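Sample entry (439 residues):
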Amino acid sequence: MPQRVRRLGLRPGVLVTVCCLAAFLLAPISAAAGDPPTCAGRPATIVGTPGPDYLRGTPGDDVIWGGGGDDRIYAGDGNDIVCAGPGNDVVDGGLGNDHLDGGDGNDLLVGGRGHDTLMGGRGHDTLNGGEGNDALLGGPGDDRLDGGPGRDRLEGGQGSDYLIGGEGPDHLIGGAGNDILRGGRGADHLQGGGGDDTLRGGEGDDVLEGGDGDDTCDGGPGTDSAATCEVVVSTERGQTSAPLLRPGPTQVALTFDDGPSGAYTPQILDILARYEVPATFFVVGRHAAAHPALLRRMVADGHSVQNHTYSHAWLTRYSDAGIRDELSRANRIIVDITGASPHCMRPPFMAVSDRVRAVASGLGLATIMWDVDPWDWKRPGASAVASHVLRATRGGDIVLFHDTAGTSTVGALPTIIQGLRARGLELVPLCAVPGVASR
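Predicted structure, serialized as tokens:
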């Protein structure tokens, strides 16, 4: 028969006060009826009340059901199963391979020594795995998960979670929300999931995958790999990373479309060289073929050269095969001239769709759009272009220019560069491994 206790020291058959007897009788399951509540499919051997309880396990394998209220549960030795139930609960698994489920509420779960499984449930939970190879699942809410020593798996679930792997080769999955993942010491695998995540590998050879959203990744010491991360912080010589697809919060990317232009691209390159600014050029394949020396200069000057189709094509009007041909032809020309493969493409006329993105992705090309368009191609004058860019641009933005916009772009660039830098913004190239093309 399961124990139903109100506070430490009570056992079946011990006289209880009137107040506690009422709680006992109002419990959802009657122990006397022989049908105790279940936890993880097992009948409970220790049962709490609808109110706040202090439950303590035996030296053996216990199944503890806390019920409602803010419970304090110490499972003790053995391989225990605990369902704390609704309320802000504190659960300590103690020694053994334990299964702890916090249920609804803001819970604190401590696995202790052993290979434990901790489930926070709904609420803002704190889960500490302790020693051993643990599995921690935060569930809905803003949770903090700390795996501790061992080979741990941490899943934040819904909400903005903070995951710490600790010592050992850990697997951290942020899930939905703006999460922070820290691998710690060991060869860790970090996956941000949806949201704007921050991934820090720590010591060891780590794999970082940002996932959806604007993610920031720092591999730390070791030979690391960072994929689908919009901002990659390279801290060690051995680190490898994915191309930078979006500026960080204190960065801005200047990008130039439609070139190269024999008349204006050299002037743009001169200005960028004078101010030591790395930029990104989305070149049209047939124009690149006509001006190979300009592409070679772009690369030599530390700029990023990317794909703007072969013929400045309106891609949404093309079949999949046509899209693939436009992008592939431009790719081949860029590779033949520079020796480097593009990582990104920008669709002319802003003509993009899921189908266009999918075809481009199949060729290894990320689709890059923009945040600020000063309409320089209409040639409104240098003053108008500079004023628009400085007024509209914020940290993290991508600015669109055109090589072919004449003096409207060429004349505006010095003012724009100086104005953005005066605000403490760093100018970075896109679609190139950080530290390679940037200056």
